[in-house]
């Protein structure tokens, strides 16, 4: 269990304050959602102990940073965005080196990571010769050294192809059964089947924290789908349209509206992203 108690972090120079009331994260995947600059990366930095709050405290099970920092750090796996890897090392060497830095001296650890993250075929390749998606998998693999209890990932699927994204999400979902995993993402729907909870940040404060089911419930507006002519489409408020695709002579549209926009429109269950648009009133 991970617990935040009245955490505040004033970021000097940018006039930004992250302000978290009491929050508890249990095992499973929690998605961290929010617009650019809402504080997702700032929160992950605090959780990963890369920075410390100005006020309040974070508790990792029975441990707190003032008394147990090395043990807490040993139990954390963190993947920030834009993690730089030593370009001249091979894939195998960097994982062995980082494993040794973390006190994992057995050869088994990095072999396990190469296997788990499908990196075996790249083991002798230098980092600088690898595609961005493969480098990202190495960045992910290093976070799993020592099988940490707390995993914090900042937009982890960046640059990965569709197959690897799905493989990784499945792996993460199984791993999160008895570990706390927090993932920042702008692609909520991709995680729908796998994440249990969402924390939505607005201007450095939680706008919502609860299950994915609760996130999609009690929304002030609804999602509607229906077919319209090209002329009718022009009359729809552009900001309410989420999707449009040709369907024979008409256009099939998915829109946000308070009331049924026309007799041919049917109400649809909102996806995680629909709920995000509705809640943030970005439309
Ligand atoms: N190095 C820094 N020093 C001081 N303040 C910073 C720094 N980096 C970011 N900030 C401030 O913190 C705010 C929150 O940024 P943060 O990167 O945490 O948001 P985010 O939700 O992760 O955004 P994005 O979706 O664009 O990654 C920014 O608007 C900025 O004002």
TrEMBL record:
<protein>
    <recommendedName>
        <fullName>ABC transporter domain-containing protein</fullName>
    </recommendedName>
</protein>
<dbReference type="InterPro" id="IPR003593">
    <property type="entry name" value="AAA+_ATPase"/>
</dbReference>
<dbReference type="InterPro" id="IPR051782">
    <property type="entry name" value="ABC_Transporter_VariousFunc"/>
</dbReference>
<keyword id="KW-0547">Nucleotide-binding</keyword>
<dbReference type="GO" id="GO:0005524">
    <property type="term" value="F:ATP binding"/>
</dbReference>
<dbReference type="InterPro" id="IPR027417">
    <property type="entry name" value="P-loop_NTPase"/>
</dbReference>
<dbReference type="InterPro" id="IPR003439">
    <property type="entry name" value="ABC_transporter-like_ATP-bd"/>
</dbReference>
<keyword id="KW-0813">Transport</keyword>
<dbReference type="Pfam" id="PF00005">
    <property type="entry name" value="ABC_tran"/>
</dbReference>
<keyword id="KW-0067">ATP-binding</keyword>
<dbReference type="GO" id="GO:0016887">
    <property type="term" value="F:ATP hydrolysis activity"/>
</dbReference>
<feature type="domain" description="ABC transporter">
    <location>
        <begin position="2"/>
        <end position="228"/>
    </location>
</feature>
């Amino acid at each position: 269990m991970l617990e935040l108690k009245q955490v505040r972090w004033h970021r000097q120079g940018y006039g930004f304050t992250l302000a978290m009331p009491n929050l508890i994260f249990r095992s499973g995947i929690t998605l961290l959602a929010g617009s650019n600059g809402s504080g997702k990366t700032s929160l992950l930095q605090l959780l990963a102990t890369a920075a410390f709050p100005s006020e309040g405290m974070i508790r990792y099970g029975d441990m707190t940073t003032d008394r147990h920092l090395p043990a807490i750090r040993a139990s954390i796996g963190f993947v920030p965005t834009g993690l730089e890897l030593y370009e001249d090392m091979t894939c195998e060497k960097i994982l062995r080196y980082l494993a040794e830095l973390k006190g994992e001296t057995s050869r088994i650890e990095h072999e396990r990571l190469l296997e788990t993250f499908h990196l075996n075929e790249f083991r002798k390749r230098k980092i600088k010769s690898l595609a961005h998606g493969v480098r990202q998998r190495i960045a992910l693999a290093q976070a799993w050294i020592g099988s940490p209890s707390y995993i914090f990932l900042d937009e982890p699927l960046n640059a990965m192809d569709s197959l690897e994204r799905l493989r990784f999400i499945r792996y993460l979902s199984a791993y999160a059964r008895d570990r706390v995993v927090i993932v920042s993402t702008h692609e909520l729907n991709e995680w729908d089947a796998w994440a249990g909870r969402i924390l939505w940040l607005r201007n450095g404060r939680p706008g919502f924290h609860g299950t994915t089911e609760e996130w999609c419930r009690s929304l002030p507006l609804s999602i509607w789908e229906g077919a319209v002519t090209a002329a009718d489409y022009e009359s729809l408020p552009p900001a309410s349209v989420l999707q449009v695709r040709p369907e024979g002579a008409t256009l099939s549209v998915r829109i946000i509206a308070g009331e049924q926009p026309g007799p041919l429109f049917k109400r649809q269950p909102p996806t995680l992203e629909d709920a995000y648009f509705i809640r943030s009133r970005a439309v």
